[in-house]
Amino acid sequence: MRLRFKHLIYLVCFIAFQSQAKLVDCKSCNTTTDFLNNAKANAQLISGTSYIYVSNTNTEVIKKFRVRYEAGNPSYGEPSVFIVGEVAVDNTSYYTFKDAMGVKRSVTSFVDTSKDIPGDIADSAWKMPANSLAQNQVINYYRDNQTWNEMVGNYFGSLLSVFGTLVNVNLTITVKFADGSNADFALTGIDHEGKLRFKFLKGTDKLGNTIGSKSSDLEGLFKTDKSTFQLYNGAANRHNYIITGVSTSTIPNGSVTIIDCHMDTVTKRVTCKRKS
């Protein structure tokens, strides 16, 4: 489903604005030095003067930097000129960013206060790894809500209308499932057709285990009962791995068992042993 937009101006966001500065989100940036170093690392080396914005959407801080670059001529011993310095954020960029942060809070609050994902869509976060169909169904559950759909469109659309290029400007939501697990998804932007891009990041099950998105996340210590092991085994199978050493029949009824699992990437097997 394509995102709906409240204002026609947002539709122009899908045109590439080469003249506009880009916005880079840096969730680990806290100090002035952090922001400056990130600006230097992401600045476009275009001859003359350009601008780059660096934000931390977790702390809702945005900074603007002027970039001056002139290519040198090594043949004549002329070094390149590369100077990056902070300048005041212009009002349009500042208030657009602040408004977008308000929309971001509304998007996450909508999900936080929503009911669990219906069981006929997915009954556990363990169903997410290596399962693009289930991931799409979960996101579509929210996309089918017009209010939420418009909020997400306005979030990315308003930022794109001012900054033109967004880097790492993701919006993370945490969805809940009926079995007590939850999953984090990053909403990463809107493509040229107006479709929302997203990525499953990780989850947490009812026993506190981390549910990773990669096959390597199948390795380690896990708390498990019969139902959790079945879900873990299903995730392994979708990653084309076979679980050996432990099965539902070896896990006592009504108890939680710790298993220690190790992967063999050659044989595509995960060997698990009971620790308790």
> How many separate helices?
5
Query: How would you classify the helix and strand content by structural class?
Result: alpha+beta
Report the portion of residues in β strands. 25-35%
Largest beta-sheet characterization: 5 strands, mixed
> What is the terminal separation in angstroms?
47 Å
Mean of pLDDT: 90
- Can you count the beta strands? 13
Low-pLDDT runs of 5+ residues are: 3-19
Radius of gyration: 23 Å
How would you spell out the order of helices and strands? EHEEEHHHEEEEEEHEEE
Strand order of the largest sheet: 4-3-2-1-5
Global outline: globular
Helix content: 25-40%
Compose a concise summary of this entry.
With 276 residues, this protein is of the alpha+beta class. The chain has five helices and 13 strands.
Plain-language structure description:
The longest helix is centred in the middle third of the chain and has 22 residues, at 91-112. This protein is α+β, with helices and mostly antiparallel strands and 276 residues long. Among the domains are: 8-97, no CATH class; 215-276. The protein is built from 5 helices and 13 strands. It has helices at 32-42, 91-112, 132-143, 146-163, 226-238, and strands spanning 22-25, 48-56, 61-70, 81-87, 165-167, 171-176, 182-190, 196-204, 210-212, 220-224, 242-244, 257-264, 269-274. α2 packs antiparallel against α4. The strands form 3 sheets. It has a 5-stranded mixed β-sheet with strand order 4-3-2-1-5, sandwiched between helices. A 4-stranded antiparallel β-sheet has the order 6-7-8-9. Keywords: Signal. Residues 1-21 form the signal peptide.
